[in-house]
Structures are given as structure tokens and as C-alpha cells.
Amino acid sequence: MSANHFIHQSAFHTKTLNLSPNSTKLLLSKFAHPLSTTQITPKQCSLRAVLSQNNPSTTITSQPKIDNFKHCFTKSEDGYLYCEGLKVQDIVDTVEKRPFYLYSKPQITRNFESYREALEGLTSIIGYAVKANNNLKILEHLRKLGCGAVLVSGNELKLALSAGFDPTRCIFNGNGKLLEDLVLAAQTGVFVNVDSEFDLDNIVAAARIAGKIVKVLLRINPDVDPQVHPYVATGNKNSKFGIRNEKLQWFLDAVKAHPNELKLVGAHCHLGSTITKVDIFRDAAVLMVNYIDQIRDQGFEIDYLNIGGGLGIDYYHSGAILPTPRDLIDTVRKLVLSRDLNLIIEPGRSLIANTCCLLNRVTGVKTNGTKNFIVIDGSMAELIRPSLYGAYQHIEMVSPAPADAEILTFDVVGPVCESADFLGKDRELPTPERGAGLVVHDAGAYCMSMASTYNLKMRPPEYWIEEDGVVAKIRHGETFEDHMRYFTGL
Ligand SMILES: Cc1ncc(COP(=O)(O)O)c(C=O)c1O
């Protein structure tokens, strides 16, 4: 893109853009939602870069049914996609690099609030699963809202500490935690889940090195089928995670044998991800509370029940009613209160997935044999869920198609040199023009955090729309120069 600017005018907005590839401060646009029910006052909106502290040298049906639920991305009757009242096409035209991730900060807040409200009346920790999305700005925002953090590596633990999370509201999970990471966990005082016999040995060793007693929860595998894709099922008996329930006594004896290293404070389970039936959580909670009774019977004073994460979201945008955080919490509330327990939950996807889209541009359209393809600049490198799990993520155009655009069935594919490189299959869409904006929805969780640089497609920048309509950069896009730095001085 040229170093400057253009002036674009339409019936709905006036925008002046002054932009260079290296600019960190991108300014201005004025526009208002044309179909807004309130008076149409052009809203001053600016796109600016927030300089990261870490300047780079992160079967299902409808959205959570939340009282006064409001989704941030809406297709208006004018055929344009809006996010928090801003026309997404204008943002696509303005940013310095595509594809890019675009989040709604107010939607993150709304999602968190729905959990917080659901948990009223219980003593609880909402531990955000950092693996879902590790953007530092998002972590800081969630921490300010009151979240704890759930971590699965030493680096996630370091990141959570950098984002200011209170270690006593953090939980360190994992089936292969490394000794050095466990030492950091012991030093900082986070809860640690015990996953296996060797994991317990390592936690004991870490406690000795740190000179601290580690507060541990036993990750018990309740053997409940979460009825999800096998890649995201974690709580069945053949899973690599957690301890088999029949080995519980061995672990209790091992904890008893290490009073100077371990303090057992609770029990944990995580069934899987994209779960759409709350009965599954209740079945697991009933089993877990029974284990807690057995553990207490042996004299352990344990207070915490951690039921993990896993609530699904409306990837299909089909309008079906999915369980809300309130449905989830209500299904375990009585059990938790009956044992006077503190409840820990570990949501990732349901906090962050629907707050974000991946914004792409159409490179071209082609037909081979009986297949039509829309080729976009985004790919499996930026967003791998469809290729990895065959996951469905809703796709639509950002702006109305020309009146004569033929509606066809397309595979939406990227430029990566793999036939597995697709973002969507068999999607009915108007034949787009080159350069048209195309959005992949619900890209807040397990998308940027799973992005790679395959084919040397560098990880994309991230932006969010703030409460006042400002579009701010929350992560720089990676560059070729970043890649070359790994080889300097060798
Ligand atoms: C232990 C643990 N807790 C929490 C989560 C978050 O799950 P979700 O993003 O489905 O809420 C995961 C993800 O699989 C996990 O492994």
C-alpha cells in the first residue's frame, strides 16, 4: 500500500486516512451506523496503535443465551458488517496489514460479566484459560475485570505474572510440566494440579528447591464422555490427562507422605472443550463431589472444586439455544454449596471466541473440476482450527456484493501450499470481487494462539475496538525481519 491515504466518501461516512506501512498511529474516520435507532451523529473514531509492553522484538449452534446478550459483529440491512457500531470494511481499508484479527473489547467484558453474574452467591475463581488466547492486552483487561488465570506452560505462567495476575488466583495445569516451570510455580504460590505419579515427584522436587509448600489439586479423570471431537475430549479414561480415579488412594498416600512439600487443597477435572450440554458438567460434578467426600473422610481439609472449562459457543450461527454460563453454574450450584466448597472454573473459548474475527481479503476466485474456490490472503497459518479439527467457523463477506454477483458454493482457501489449507468448505457465498473483505467469525479462541509462520506467513497483527469506538492495535504483526533475527550471530 502506498505511504499515504486516500479520501473516501459515502452516504454514510467520511474517512480520511493517513497511513504508512511503518506507522503506529493511524488516524481517523467518521462514521455512524446507518441503521442505528438512535440519531445518526457521525462518530469520531480513530485507529491508533497501542504500543505493547512487549514490543516484538497471540456441533454447535447459537451464541450463549445471556440475558441482554448482545453480539458485537452484526450484519446490517445495508449489507455491511459492523462491530460495535463501526463499519468493518472501513477498518479493513485502514489497517496496514491483512489478514488481521479484530476484537471487541466490550464483548470481552460482557462475556466476563455473564460468568461473574452467574457465580454470585458462590465463592469462586474464574480462571481464564490463557491457552485460548495469550494476547497480553487481553490478559491485562481480563485481570482488571477480576479474572484469575489457568496456565499450561512456564511461559504462560510468566506471561500471566507480567499481566499482573494474582498468583493465588492462578492454576498451573498440564500432563508434562517441567521441573523448572514447577519451581517457578512453587516460588510464586500458584495452585498446581497433580496429573500423574511422575508429576507428583516433580512437584515435590520443585517444592524442595523453592523451599515452599505447594498448594495442589488432584486432577481426577472422572471418565465422563463430553460428546465432542476426540481431539478436544480430555476427561475419558483413555485420556493422557489426569489420574485414573481408581488410583486416588495412591495419590492421597503420596500427599500424606510429603507434608513439608504438598498441601492438598482441592480436586480438579476438565472434561473437554466445545461442550454444549450442561448435564455433562453436572454428571462430572456429582462424581467429583463424591471424591471430595472420600478425600475429606481421610482427614484432608480440602476446599476447592475445579470443574475446568469447556462450554461451547455458537460457531454455526444457527440460532439454536446453547447453555449459558448461568446454566452451567446453576447445574452445579447446590452441590458446591452442599459441601461448602470454593468453585474454580476455567473458561477459555466461551470468554473469548465470539469477541473476534479474522479479517481477510479475496485474492481471486477460481474453478477446478467441479469445485469453486475463493482464495484469500488468510490461511491455516493464521487460523488452523478448520484444518486441524474440521471445525466450522462462520464466513461472510464484509460488504454487500455487486447486484449481479452469482451465488455459488465455494471452498474458502488460503495460499498455503497444502490441500488442508482451508477456512471453510462448501460455503454458499456471492462471487466476490478481488480485494473484497471476507471475515472468519468466532476467531478469538484457539486461533491466534495456534497461529504459525508456516510458508513464512508471518503472524498477523491484532486490533480491538474499545468502548469509545477507538480501534487500537493490541499486537504488532510479525515481520520477515523478526524471522531473520533468529539467525543473527550464528
Ligand atoms: C485444563 C483446561 N482447562 C480449561 C480449558 C479451557 O477450555 P475451553 O476453552 O473449552 O473453555 C482447557 C482447554 O482445553 C484445559 O485443558
UniProtKB/TrEMBL annotation:
Pathway: Amino-acid biosynthesis; L-lysine biosynthesis via DAP pathway; L-lysine from DL-2,6-diaminopimelate: step 1/1. Residues 101-444 form the Orn/DAP/Arg decarboxylase 2 C-terminal domain. It comes from the Eukaryota. GO terms for cellular component: chloroplast. Pfam families: Orn_Arg_deC_N, Orn_DAP_Arg_deC. The keyword RNA-binding does not apply. The modification N6-(pyridoxal phosphate)lysine is found at residue 131. One of its GO terms (molecular function) is diaminopimelate decarboxylase activity. It catalyses: meso-2,6-diaminopimelate + H(+) = L-lysine + CO2. Keywords: Amino-acid biosynthesis, Decarboxylase, Lyase, Lysine biosynthesis, Pyridoxal phosphate. Residues 107-353 form the Orn/DAP/Arg decarboxylase 2 N-terminal domain. This is diaminopimelate decarboxylase.
